[in-house]
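fyi for ur records
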Amino acid sequence: MSADKFFNSITLLRCPICGAALSRSGASLVCANGHTFDPSRKGYVHFAPNAAPSHYDRALFEARRRILEAGFYDAVIDSIRNVMPGNPEVVLDAGCGDGTFTKRLQGKTTVGIDLSKDAIQLAAHGGGPILWMVGDLTRLPVHNASVDVILNLFSPAHYAEFTRVLKSDGVLLKLVPQEGYLGEIRSLLGERLRQRTYSNEAVVSHLFERFRIIDRVRIQKTHPLTEEQARDFLKMTPLTFDVEPDALDASALKGITIDVELLIAKSK
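which gave:
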């Protein structure tokens, strides 16, 4: 059964509501305070039943998956692999989206967590050993000092929680855009874009308050685009959230620039 993977990893899990250890009761995960979570037959657990809907819907994640599978981010994935500790015991992808990155960056035990149910359902499709969870990054359902590697890729962070769950020698790998990231889309949006330029230094400064930055790796590459791929990029980026889809001419996008920075950090 798809639920067995959660019961097999029960010692890793804790209640996201009260922090108590989870145990098995029939087909459910329960804590001593009576909070109960039922693993879905589709291969995930919903740890955030009251989560509000967001712009990040199924169509966005499906477009994102097609782009990732087309290889636009292969150099990024290779760079992450190059700095990951060898064969880590527990990898947690905090803000995993549709799970494409997660599946290519696994440890012996791998947790993928995202607040979007649509994303987690896509990630869990097809089965596999990864522990997929709908959950809040401010209440990670894993025990203190239990994680070797946290992946935080194009996602908001909660550094207090990251510090709590990382082992003393654990590492945080955070991926953030650089100023050239999706520059062609920024140019296409023109005056419709609220912020014409981008800097990640505020993100880096916030990270530095809680973590030691061990290294910074920049990955840059410009790829040619088909019109179909251009439409997928326009669907998947938050840059276009406030723009009517028909207002943008996807055929005008002939190429796309991936310009990101990988931050390797450890708790202070």
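The chain is about 30% helix and 30% strand. thats all i got for now
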